[in-house]
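Quick log. Single chain, no ligands specified.
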Amino acid sequence: MNSATSSTPLATNTPRRAFMQRAAACTVALVAGVLAAPCVQAQPSYTVSLAQLHEVVAQKFPRSVPVQGLIDLTLQAPQLRLVPAANRLGALMAVNAAGPALRRSHAGSFDVEFALRYEPSDRTLRAHQIQLGRLDFPSLKPSVTELLNAYGPALAAQSLGEVTLHQLRPQDTALFDAMGLQPGPITVTDKGLVVGFVQKPPQ
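-> predicted structure:
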């Protein structure tokens, strides 16, 4: 009787102990999830795809840029590319050169890279800090091509300077506005532009 009586608590304690261990594990997992949740939500963001950027930029072209009253460059809508490593965008544009200094028109290409900034007055993402790659015209004399490249930085600024790439609509940011957040850093990723949201400064 004594041996049978003494074995009963061990039999009942074993499943109870296992239950308590499972409950403890579930509690730890729940607490970890709660602690991790704010970290996931601490940096809300809004993504703009490359296709959306192309759609907006295409509306800004073609553009005509005069060079010293002698040559007129007509730039077509750029083919944008994402450059995440530099946190910039690239743009390759078809260009046509014509004017009094040339006997005929010449087709070429114009390559630039640029950063982005947010303009709060109209909620737009704009190109800035533009860097010229190179103007290339295979059918032009090298001396003329070099002349055009000497004006390259000014041409880049005229063609893409402060061009709007996207405009945030009120419905795009309504939730963030309600949380007291505003657009902050813009990050170029493989999937597009990611606009981070930060806390609005106290008024």
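The radius of gyration is 30 Å.
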